[in-house]
Amino acid sequence: MLNVSDIVNVTVNLSPLAAGRADFGVPLFIGTSDVLTAEERLRLYGSLEEIAEDFENTSPEYLAAQAYYSQSPKPKNCMIGRWVKDTGEVPPVAIYGGVITALDTIKQSGSFKLPYTAPATIATYATSKVRSKTVKTAVYSEGDPTDSTLDVTIDLSAATDFENAATLLSAALKTPDTPEVPETPEKVTYSAATCTDNIKGLSKVSCAPLQSDTQSYILLQDGTKVVAKSGGSMNQGDAAFICTQLNAKFDGYTFSIVENKCKITANSKIEDTKNIVCFVGMNLASTQDVYREVFGLGEYSVIQNWTEDNWKTIFTDTPQEVTPAVPGTPAIPGKQIATATYNAEETRFELYPAEGVTNIDFPTAPDSGTNMAEVLKLSADAGGTKPTVASESPLDAFEACRVASGGWYVGIFAVPIPDEDSLAVSSYVEAASTPTMYGQTLTDPNILKSTVTDDLPSKAKTMSFTRTVYQYSTNPYAICSLFGRIVTTNFSANNSMITLKFKQEPGISYDDLTTAQAKTLEDKRVNMFVLFNNDTAIIQQGVCSGSCFIDERFGLDWLANAVQTAVYNVLYTSATKIPQTEAGQARIYNAIVGVMEEAVYNGLLAPGTWNGDDMGPITNGTMLASGYHIYYDSVVNQEQSEREARKLPPFQCLVKLAGAVHYSDVVINVNR
């Protein structure tokens, strides 16, 4: 069977989808809440409910969006951006690794050093003498933040995927579970004991009362006795005999008689020898009574009346704590220093400080072996980066939001900013290549005074900012409602253009201003939502700080973008080319005409008299019957250099704005 394609061959060429126009219906509310990181910068939302999932309903961002979504018709989308106002609001530091896409490249074992900052570890050591054995324990607590380094050993040779590798890495990012306790602290000082203090080295002693009539003895926990004397009262020789027997029982301590008192002296690790307890006190004036003296209190008791509890006050089981000053004290056992994740979207490993760790830095090479910081691309040399930023000015944040996305049109700070910063933002907006507007609510009542001429709106007016809009209100989010009304404009609909004057601001309380105050705001080109004496409240006047109305600026930005997009799509969607001929000019001309007709349809343009300079066949006073005129010279007349650069002669569009009625005078002539 033969193929019919040998006779008739059909090829389908599908033109690309045309480029879309800019969306002028999305405002941006910039706040300082740490819901967004500086790296993410901004986020798109489609409703107030979506915003409530991320932001507290008392946050400035939420309240700004609430005023916006309260408008009627209800707007669709908005963005919320992040202003890193100061370094205290910067999210916890992190280390972002370089791009890794092949698992086999990291399936190795090795180590690296991770610098970090965390509260210093204070080790409190407790030592005790149990029979002849010295026991040391340590209790760990935190001190002031200190720079430290964690030695990390990691084996990823058996990692099954990147997520598993991140889990293995996290498990290695902690201090050892059983750090070595220093053998001998540099300095240990014991305090003088009282009757409730613990005796170093006598922790396992329990005593029965001394019996002066039969036998005087101390019963040790192992069941043996230290016999003082059988029958009769004790003398200094009996006390010495007790010391001799105690010396044999407790290695490391010496018991001796000093001034009729038993003195305990540690053979090592005691900085200042003290009479910790006067174990035996002799009253040489009496041969019948033996007294017991407790050092420091000066109390005496007849030894025959002592109970076992009296002895246990002296011989206890709790060792005495000491605090050494030891350089290089080991970290708290098993403390997590950092956690690791694998960001599949960015194809990289990321390290974040664990709780209580204030900073981590780029991993460095180990003393020997494979440098896993290089393998995982976490070191600075291997492509590691940090996401933190320094504190930003409002202009920094505004610019960063514009760089992050061209999908918003009006920028509004949800928090107050200084006047000088506001003017800096206005200057940027005026010069930005992407059409942008800036709005701000003014709550300072001083702007209502005509005598104040150095306030923010007065300065902005002298600078002729045609992309900055102010509104006076006692509600700091009123400007969000104002823009919420105009961004609902559907440029594809018939007679859809609006003026902001006479519109309402649902959810915003009107201001009851005097005529003089309203006139002052009007002179300073500040909008207001005010009450009239017919019980209606409206927005007045709907103006920019410079000499234009908000709806004009809004509509002309749309018109410029629509023409730009239409001409681009003629060139972009052509399967061959647009020839540099009059026929090619006609293709571009028709695309521009299509947009102009749309502008007439939506009410931006309308027929009227041209009162501008002469251009081509159009002179001052000429009626633009269609609301516009497009003039261009023929391509056959263009300069050779322009033709060789493949440029068409410019299209010059004369357009007549439809405008809007804000005032009307009515004269009634009465005849009797």
Structure write-up:
It is a single chain. With 672 residues, this protein is of the alpha+beta class. The protein is 22% helix and 21% strand. The strands form eight sheets. It has an eight-stranded mixed β-sheet with strand order 2-3-1-17-18-19-20-21, with helices on both faces. Strands 5, 6, 13 and 16 form a four-stranded antiparallel β-sheet that branches. The longest helix has 24 residues, at 550-573.
Kindly summarize this structure in a few lines:
This protein is 22% helix and 21% strand. It has 672 residues and is an alpha+beta fold. The longest helix is centred in the C-terminal third of the chain and has 24 residues, at 550-573.
Classification by helices and strands: alpha+beta
Instruction: Please tally the β strands and state the result.
Output: 25
Q: Largest beta sheet: what is the strand line-up?
A: 2-3-1-17-18-19-20-21
Specify Rg, calculated over alpha carbons.
Answer: 44 Å
Shape: flat
Residue windows where pLDDT falls under 50 for at least 5 positions: 128-135, 181-236, 257-330
Mean pLDDT: 79
Largest sheet: 8 strands, mixed
Query: What is the beta-strand fraction?
Result: 15-25%
Helix percentage range: 10-25%
Number of helices: 14
Distance between the termini: 103 Å
